[in-house]
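User: Run a structure prediction on this.
Assistant: Running it now.
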Amino acid sequence: MWKEKTTTLSLKISEHVAAIWKLTAEREGHAGIVPWLKALAQGKVTELGVKLPKKRLKWKRGAFTVDLCGDLPDSKGPTEVTGIVAGPFGVFCGSKTGLCNQRYTYFTLVHLPTHETIATLGRQIDCRQLAQRLFTLKVNWNATNPKEVSGPEESEARSILYTFQRRDHVKPSERTGYL
């Protein structure tokens, strides 16, 4: 299950300022200073909206394992591939049925902790964009069991995945659906 991480903050203010804040918080209907400050901060974050920086994936070259399901012996089961990795995602040239051949070039987004393919798309940049969109969602991307990759925004992740697969021109037999 997805669990939100929390951080504790402390603040030093003079007694005079604390008294003013306490009165203000009570007048606005808050139980104390902490709920009042939390409401103020959340209001400011909402006001700023998209101006806040989002979590970004930093891609680098690497090797990782992916579970392939092709017909050939070398394209079945856990296989080490090379590609690019960032956070819980990896992208390699190929599909869930095997690595690239010279006729077709596909790129596959992989969930690294589970070694499962998420989607096979026609361009590497599409896989990276899909990974970025998925990464910002509240989903337990660190789970090593595919059934545990869930969270409050799981349905939104499915919708994003569907949108990427619909706009791409990869044959339906080469597409994968992870979520």
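The helical segments are 15-27, 33-48, 124-135, 154-167.
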